[in-house]
Every structure is written in C-alpha cells, then in structure tokens.
Amino acid sequence: MCGIVGYIGYREAYPILVKGLHRLEYRGYDSAGVALLKKDGELNVYKEKGKVCNLEQLVESKDTSGEIGIAHTRWATHGEPSRLNAHPHVSQNGKLALVHNGIIENYASLKTFLESKGFTFKSSTDTEVLVQLIQFIQDEYNKDLEGAVVSALRRVTGAYAIAVIDKDFPDKIVVARNSSPLVIGIGEDYKEFFFASDALPIVEYTNQMIYLNDGEVALLKLGQKVEIHNLDNEDIDPKIKEVDINLDSLEKGGYDHFMLKEIYDQPRCIADCMRGRLLPKEKRIVLSAINQHREKLLRAKRFIIVACGTSWHAGLIGKQFIEQWCQIPVEVEYASEFRYRKPVIMSGDVVIAISQSGETADTLAA
Ligand code: GLU
C-alpha cells in the first residue's frame, strides 16, 4: 500500500507533491521519488532510497521548478529497495515518466518482447516494463499519450494505479487504475488537477473529487473537463463527488506515530461507533446499515469472517460475541488463505469481510 501523488496546474508542483508524499507516509514505503515537468518540456527526475526527507535532502540544491509533477512512495515487490528501482521510471527515449502502485503480473513476457524490439532496462522492476511498452506503442502506432496508455494496459495483467507524463505534452497527465486506488481532485475551472492514492494529499486544495473505478483511464488536461475511458475505449461519464474530510482526524495529531495516535483514539472511536446505535434507555441496538440484510442474517447457520492482520484479530473477538449471544458457529479465516482455497460455502453461510483500509488486496479478492 504505497502512494502516488500528482499535480498539474499553475502552482509550483514540488511543494504540493512532497507535502502529499508526507501525508501518505502512513501507508508504508521504502523509497520515494518525483518527476517534474516544466512548460518548456524540461523533465527532471529525482529519487532516493529511504524516507521522503532523504529525497528532500537530495533535491535541496537541485532545480525543482515546474507546474506538472508526479511523485511516488514505493513498497518494493520486484527488485530491491534502491534509488535505481525507485519510481518514477523513465522511458528509453527520455520522454515519458511513470509512477505505479501495484504489480504487473505478466511483466516477464512483456520484457522479453520489448527486449526483442531493442529496449534495454535500467531497473529490475515490473514497472519499468510498462513505461517502455507505452513508448513502444506510441512509436509503433503513432498514438497520443492517452491512446498509448489504453493500448498498453490492454496488454497488462495485474494491479495498478499509474500516472504518466510526456515531455512533448506539458499540459496533460494520464492516470489509470485497476485494483489499486486513485482519487482525482478538480481545481476551479479545470485550471488545476490533483490526484493521489487517497484523498489526504488533496483535501486542502479542493473538495471536488472523482474516484476512478477499475479499468478506467483518465486524461487530465488543463482547461478541460476530465475525460475518462475504459479499456475498450468507451467514454465514461465522470462522477464528481463533493468530499468532506476533516484533515485533523486523519493526521498524526501531535503524536509521534500513527500507531500511538490510533491507540489513544480508541475510546473516542468506540464511543463514535456506539453513538446512535446503542440505545440503552430503549434497551435496543440499531444497525441501520445492515438492515437490508436482516432476513439473511437471521437465517444464518454459520458465519465466516475473513480478514488479515489486526482485522483478523478483531474477527476473533467477533467470534466470541456472536457465538456467545447468537449461538451460531463462527469461523475466522485468513483472507490470504481463503482466497486461494476452494472453501465449502453453503446456502446458510454468511461471510463477513473486515478491512481497516478497505483496500486490503487479499480480503477484496476473498
Ligand atoms: N511493483 C512495483 C515495484 O516493485 C511497484 C511497487 C509499489 O506499489 O510501490 O516497483
């Protein structure tokens, strides 16, 4: 669960990107990087192993100007954590820069294909294959950036959120997602766009957001509405949401670590969860969100809770409560095992999935 941040508009991109990377630090990462593009087409890429502050030190004496930029915190899946493997990755012709969250499952065959076409690779990541593939398609089929990204993604299997910039077009960024989250923030009159892995790096600039769906590619071009296509090249109507997020509740709030904050948050969280639901005077519990499933829940013969990590432990507590009060058997399973088994699920079974982030890949797959 690493992070992507991007900006295109009239402000300096770098400060927005670095602040955004800090806001995504809670997701965990091993290296960080940024690509900055100026209106005249000059592209500068800086990356560093370790913390975002290492990247900040690296660029102290460097040119960080430019109103377009993409930035990344990496959690290595292919290739060790290193400066070379950190994102952004740049295409062989030096024109494209790309950041990617996720895994390109068929990268090995794509790499062999591209090598046969004369491409060489600097990193050992799966991601570099994608940026070279986009260049190959641009060169071979004379496609514009968005067309080349759609064509490339049609050949890719895997999970991704990506952002690509092109030196030749310093007025647009193309982003896409499949199984890794991506949120787009829209500035006034489409004079600027923000995007990130979650809304945190965006909320202080705009509350107008589009949550991209799987298999969607969006073109962010200055001065025009967001254009979204699916991988069959069909137009998708962008659904703009007004998002109301309280930044204080999402930041470290004066604590040194998110874990410490979460520990101290517990009493308030529990009170918030119970407020309006636990009605002691009426001796009633109201769970309106699950009301529509009431009949099925009442008919349940067994509950299967699937989750990972802390959520799995929460599931174990849930098992105690459900079995004690409902006398209905409960099994608690690791989502990462459940997804690859052929579990026996019968008509009276109710499966409950728990994910703190809502993004836990194994739980979603399960
Ligand atoms: N698979 C890519 C890599 O290893 C991206 C990892 C990530 O999501 O940060 O570089």
Report a brief summary of the structure:
The chain has eleven helices and 20 strands.
Query: Please, what is the average pLDDT?
Result: 93
CATH superfamily of the largest domain: Aminohydrolase, N-terminal nucleophile (Ntn) domain
- How is the biggest beta sheet arranged? 8 strands, antiparallel
Secondary structure tally, helices: 11
Q: Can you identify the CATH class of the largest domain?
A: Alpha Beta
CATH architecture of the largest domain: 4-Layer Sandwich
What topology emerges from the helices and strands here?
Layout: E1 3-8, H1 13-23, E2 31-37, E3 43-49, H2 52-59, E4 68-74, E5 89-90, E6 96-104, H3 107-116, H4 127-141, H5 145-154, E7 158-166, E8 172-178, E9 183-186, E10 193-196, E11 208-211, E12 216-221, E13 227-230, E14 235-236, E15 241-242, H6 247-250, H7 258-274, E16 278-279, E17 284-285, H8 294-298, E18 302-307, H9 309-326, E19 330-334, H10 335-338, E20 349-354, H11 361-365
Parallel strand pairs: 18-19, 18-20
Antiparallel strand pairs: 1-4, 1-10, 2-3, 2-4, 5-6, 6-7, 7-8, 8-12, 9-10, 9-11, 11-15, 12-13, 13-14, 16-17
Helix pairs in contact: 3-4, 4-5
Bound molecules: glutamic acid.
Residues 2, 74-79, 85, 100-103, 125-127 line the site of glutamic acid (GLU).
